[in-house]
Amino acid sequence: MDQFRAALTSLTEPNADGTPQKKLVIVIDELDRCRPDYALQLLEVIKHFFATPGIHFVLGTNMQELANSVRARYGAGIDADRYLHKFVQITMPMKQSNNKPSNSQQ
């Protein structure tokens, strides 16, 4: 684990005091479409294995569906939003487009 974190840290080119000079951004899209247990396991891996300064994740996901995954795994009584807040610090809702593709784009 120490070697893994050292390798991640080296990717951010830290200066003498350990402050990252570069950022590594990893994008994961459609996490909500994965099996619920897989999606939550991936969040846990991200949280515990990649907790390194300068390493950031962008998750393209439907947070309501991800919350449903939490409830499916831990039961209906869990506060799914509170649970997910342990993993997701910033959310940026996307506006749904009403544009329908033309026939040439189908």
Helix and strand layout, with pairings?
Elements: H1 2-11, E1 24-29, H2 36-49, E2 55-60, H3 63-74, H4 80-85
Parallel strand pairs: 1-2
Helix pairs in contact: 2-3
InterPro entries: KAP_P-loop (IPR011646), P-loop_NTPase (IPR027417)
Organism: Yoonia maritima
Protein name: KAP-like P-loop domain-containing protein
- CA radius of gyration is 17 Å
Mean pLDDT: 89
Estimated structural class: alpha+beta
Q: Helices and strands, in N-to-C order?
A: HEHEHH
Strand order of the largest sheet: 1-2
Shape: globular
Let me know the largest β-sheet.
Answer: 2 strands, parallel
Number of strands: 2
> Strand content of the residues, in percent?
5-15%
Helix content: 25-40%
C-alpha end-to-end distance:
47 Å
Q: What is the count of distinct domains?
A: 1
Count of helical regions: 4
Unreliable sequence segments:
none
Protein name: KAP-like P-loop domain-containing protein
Pfam families: KAP_NTPase (PF07693)
